[in-house]
Automatic annotation (TrEMBL):
Keywords: DNA-binding. It comes from Staphylococcus simulans. It comes from the Bacteria. GO terms for molecular function: single-stranded DNA binding. This is Single-stranded DNA-binding protein. The keyword Nucleus does not apply. Homotetramer.
Length: 138
């Protein structure tokens, strides 16, 4: 079985960085277009995908992106459940393994970071347990 996701889209809000004992975590959402054909007509829809990243990648996302930034992400889908008000709720999120910072908000060209060419980060490690998220390429 394979669980590999590749998306390109824009951040819908400012990334939220949280410091945890094991690793820093950033939470954000990406809007991505989906094209389809309905009754012979080309249609377009937008999907909003909740994402999570760890360690150095999380810190770079928090430092180099903002609402509207265009990014390319590879990762895997992670499902979870939680209890709230005596009801079980289920959710899914994309766990980021690599990210490419493509452009800043309101910029249709490729972005160039003046002193930091933080274009591609690589995330390594397991989702559960103590992550070893210390591999990064700048």
């Amino acid at each position: 079985m394979l669980n590999k996701i590749v998306i390109v889209g824009r951040l819908t809000k400012q990334p939220q960085l949280t410091a945890k004992e094991e690793s820093d975590i950033v939470y954000f959402s990406v809007a991505t277009e989906r094209h389809y054909n309905y009754q012979g007509q080309n249609k377009q829809s937008v999907d909003f995908i909740n994402c999570k990243a760890f360690g150095k990648i999380a810190r770079n996302i928090a430092s180099y992106t903002q609402k509207g930034s265009l990014v390319g992400i590879t990762g895997y889908m992670h499902s979870y459940k939680y209890e709230k008000d005596n009801q079980t709720h289920f959710g899914m999120e994309l766990v980021v393994e690599t990210i490419k910072f493509i452009s800043h908000p309101n910029d249709n060209s490729s972005c160039q970071f003046s002193s930091h060419h933080a274009q591609t980060d690589t995330l390594m490690g397991e989702y559960e347990g103590s992550p070893s998220f210390d591999a990064i390429h700048l």
